[in-house]
Queue: 2 jobs
Job 1
Amino acid sequence: MPDTLPANSVGVVVPQIAQFDTPLTLSCGQTLSSYQLVYETYGELNQQASNAILICHALSGDHHAAGYHTMSDKKPGWWDSAIGPGKAIDTNQFFVVSLNNLGGCCGSTGPTSINPETNQIWGAHFPIVTVEDWVESQARLADRLGIRTFAAIVGGSLGGMQVLEWSIRFPDRLKAAAIIASAPKLSTQNIAFNEVARQSIRRDPEFHDGNYLDQETVPTNGLGLARMLGHITYLSDDAMGAKFGRQMRHDAYQYNYGIEFEVESYLRYQGEAFTKRFDANTYMLMTKALDYFDPAAQANGDLAAVLSRAQCEFLLVSFTTDWRFAPERSEEIVNALVKAGKHVSYTKIEAAEGHDAFLFPIPRYMNALSSFLTRVAKRLTTEVK
Amino acid sequence: MRSDLEMIDEWIQPNTRVLDLGCGPGELLQHLIGNKQVHGYGLEIDPENLNICIEKGIPVLEQNIDEGLHNFEDQSFDLVVMTHALQQFRRPDLLLDEMLRIGKECIITFPNFGHWRNRIHLGLKGRMPVSDFLPYNWYDTPNIHFCTFHDFERLCLEKSIKILRWAAVDGQLKDHWWIRTMPNIFSETAVFHVSR
């Protein structure tokens, strides 16, 4: 809890809700007749509405990217290190919009919401949404906020996939795209990890085919296990080794299945903490969105052909020890953009933190993002003149 | 702009696709993009230079050239440029092949190790040359494959690489008749424009 807010914090923020009553037809064929999106904004939208930056969140992220909800919050938003006055995503220059995606569990319509047609909790009946659906709904939120064109759209991991989709689907609605620790599609290994995560949830006896809330229960064991697995893949071997090594709870082996190594305790804690803030159906749905994303499929796998539509300037960032979304995966996007003759810069950041590195304020990484957005801000001022 | 860059600028056609290997802070590309509508990318590994390029809006990719250029397709650039860097790579000969695979033409500049001052330094003092132009000691120099003007010509001949034009200039990047007559002795910087 901060006694006083840090000077470079966006301060106390209040989430807002946008209600949409125009039906949204999803990739799966189902239609949501109405839905709501919860979002936060930081900074001021200028008169031309040209200085907006959209933040796209990853698997377990939400709309609360920066600042505090109350002065008693233990932690600020999930990307507070990058968003704020004078930070890489500078709220003195930009109007930052961050939303919880459709299907989420933090205030936007999702599996924990009430289905207006049945007055029951959606649960397992909530349709599977895709990256394309998210981008479509984000564009509607932009319309609502009076933003025709974003100065930039920024996202890491699954968030980066949304940025990539924006550049293809709405090429004239963004000037710049920052795609961080992402990939043009999941690898087989990634899909495999996601399937293990889903199965661990589905096989929890408390899952009840996804309608656990009706039974007033939650598949905490399955969801916790899914998170433990995910967590291992977000860290590098080196980072885990440096943090825990073979540190033990006791002086000698206990020869039982209780917690002996500190890493076991850490993983159990991470798994359990996650079940208190996240919904199992949302987790499964987010992993499916990851699995399905493959924009090159519409051009027989030719990513460059698909990206030929893009008009924005791109920044791609990867991290050396990230093996979930390895640098080679970002480079697939870079190579396709070069082939398509697009304006792209790419930097591979030396970092020990694995995939999680995209959430850390690593100086080289923050400098690159800041340089990229400084250029975006400069172009805004020259265009006004 | 550095004067060797100014010289090769004259050789570069407008509206072409240019790849600059080891682009530094992007001086050449910035000039070409701004004045010749060139469509360019730079490769660089120095974080500071990368940031400078990103902030200037020059497309720059972090890529270690010693680890290969296989991500670039055959003949996908009109021109591949490498200024004052060839001597820093593990295998300049293989790199030259790669540059001519990716680009239809290449422009390469490098310090001529056959310059008379180097000869005197080595011949009379018996020590590796250190100068303002080449300020490193033998043990900390990034320049691991020095060559002379003639060495490079010879490599081109062996590889059947066409020399479209060349220039040989002094420290101030001026060309004089005596440099033109005996480039291997009098030029400090050699500039070659080559193709297959």
Job 2
Amino acid sequence: MAEIYKLIHPVKYFNDYISRDIRPDGRKFHEQRNIKVNVNSLKTAEASAVVKCGNTTVVCGVQLELATPKAEEPELGFLVTNVELTPLCSSKYRPGPPSDNAQVQSYMLSDIFSNSKCIDLKDLCIVPDKLAWVVYCDIVCLDNDGSLVDACIIALMASLKTLSLPTVTYDPETEEIKVDPDVRTPLKVDGCPVATSFAVYKLTERNILLTDPSAYEEEMCGGLGAHFTVCLNKGLICGNHKFGGSHLLMENQEEVLKIAKERANLVVKVIDSCIKNEKSIDK
Amino acid sequence: MDKEKLKEIGKICIPGMRLSPADDEHISGPGTYDLQGYIYATLAGILKTERDETRKATVITVVSPRTPSVLPRTGDIVTAKVTVVNSRMVQCVILCVGASVLVRPYRGVLKKEDIKSTDKDRIDPYKCFRPGDVILARVLPMTEIHWYHLSTAENELGVVIATAEGSPQGVGMVPISWSEMQCPKTLVKEPRKVARVIPENINQNLFNVGKDKEKKSKEPAEDKSN
Amino acid sequence: MPLDYRRFNGPEDSVSYKRFTKDYLKSYSELYNNLIDEKGRRKDGRALEEARSMCMFFARTDMVSQAKGSAYIELKKTKAVCSVFDPREIPHQNEFSQLGQLFCEVKFAPFSCPNQRRTHAPDADEKALSVALRQALEPTVCRHLFPNYQIDVFVYILENDGSCLAAAINAAGLALANAAVPMYDIITACSVAVIGEKMFVDPTEAEEHLAMMTPEKEGTNHGIITMSMLSELKQVSDFTQIGSMDTDCVTKAIEILEKECENIVPNIQKVLVLNVVQCIEQRKQLEEEAKEREQALNAKMEEWKQLLNSG
């Protein structure tokens, strides 16, 4: 019965909940969903992480390749991040080239990541102008239930934190490259950016912020993707995206920052404890 | 697993399970098929047997706990939302078939002459439907590949939920006659082909208006306490 | 290859670092000796004719919340996710078709293969797998129930350690049943890799790789056979053979595969039955909650009635 009501009277259905300070899935406005992280579950990738935020599931796999650095930036390595929204994660996506939404998510992630400066690309250079690492980070969404960027960043950071680079010896005369995969050095990661998404819902007299929105809530608030994403790295804002939706008041902004800060601390703790667990199992 | 619990649930079937011989006594119903003298299940679910008195046989069906992937069939009553109205026809998306909700909406078309059963020549679709209206309609035989043909030429079929122009979303109009509805807030009157909704249970219906309101307000509040 | 502007691309000349490691290039015999140890056991401790069905087989349904039905299958390292959606209109179709269609797509994750990063663009391998999957599934779905519509079946392979097609078919069969799509029977699949005299049931990536290589000696059997079966109806719905081998070898392989397909059936059955039980229990709980609500409402109504009556 509720299903039919939801379908035929979508706005009324949603309003009924929101006007009583509760969300359709039973959460409070600023309650977040559970986060589950699992690292190194895929053996074919150099490093990997599976992240679940509520129903949203993303998998990040890292692969390493070697290439010559760009002529204009001879001392920098490469780090390529891509977000893949597979057709299986939601009925909205079709097979084929990435949709506009997938491209926006991809760009946003890469923006946040490069702004946070948590990886120094110089660390990825082996011999200037000759040889550098290319770190391919492919983030695949298996189940899109909203707040995708949040989950993607967690997956990316969790896998980069476990990544270690094999030792490379380069002979400048013969240009011979030798790689020893058994001796590895971990990649230096400085800080950990964490994104927190909000959806802005316009009720007649006031705007309501929903933290960590689900796909249904995002849609009810007007369109694909969350409206407002704040990213923090070690207490500094490294990304602040606002797409569509209605306007935000100053006091909202402060509230948002407070929530984002709390969440950033929580997520860093989750990732670290997960990696620690994994290591203790390995030993 | 709990044996008691399983007993309570009934007989669980999975696709390809042989259920019974197919003879004069046993007929295959929904969720099953017969092949070479036997009835097999096509769905994962619970086995149900019903006695069909007219045919003097037992109908064997399998009921899935999930809504099976249904498509609208000829004769079904569907709930649809109007998307386009022009002078010749009304286009809509079908949302529900009977009581089951469709996950993917299917397209339906309502031709001008199928809107009303009387006065067919003088029907103006603009005076019957507006985009955004929720209507009840009956499915006609399929003639085109991707369009379901619909009809509202019955008293019980037509607009059930509509919002007047300029009124805020979620405020529905109230029917005041066969062909008019009025917004309770702005008091604007608009023409519609109104459906006479038959209540399932007359007694409860006496309190239906008050009850409905109460129910909606109650549901979220309940969730909160959980 | 033309540049893909919709994604971020790495430098064009990048190569996997594994090219420069010591054990990148190995001869055929070296690879062969790597597969089996002295006791005749395979690298992961299995006997030749032992499939990864017992403790290494893991399956579950309801992986993807947004899909109608979904399944996840793990054969030791091979991991596949499958989701099935409701019937939808067939795009660009202008003929009336009595039977519904299946649209299948198998995709590998870019990081699914151990040696080379997979490109995002669909390659011949994926296409071939998609077609094989569709052919295998078509006989098992009651397609006459949804004329002019198609059901989407998407399989995503997270990690490839051999027997991808078999894993994809098993996952898709489970997901279809989970989505309550009417099916004639449960479908299971298994594959075997043939290298010379030996048959590797449910091969790993390394074994498949070697089976695909042309052996040094002419005329030796080599190749991979994948077969899918409808267990109750005893029908073979798909039979894919790659490589070259003699007829005796093929008949022997079919015998083995038939047995292995049977062995998987109880696993799938268990998952489906559990799924039904779970669904029903969930529903019961919801109904109970609804009943409570109804009771509260009725009590309220009585109160109102009394108020109204008293004036």
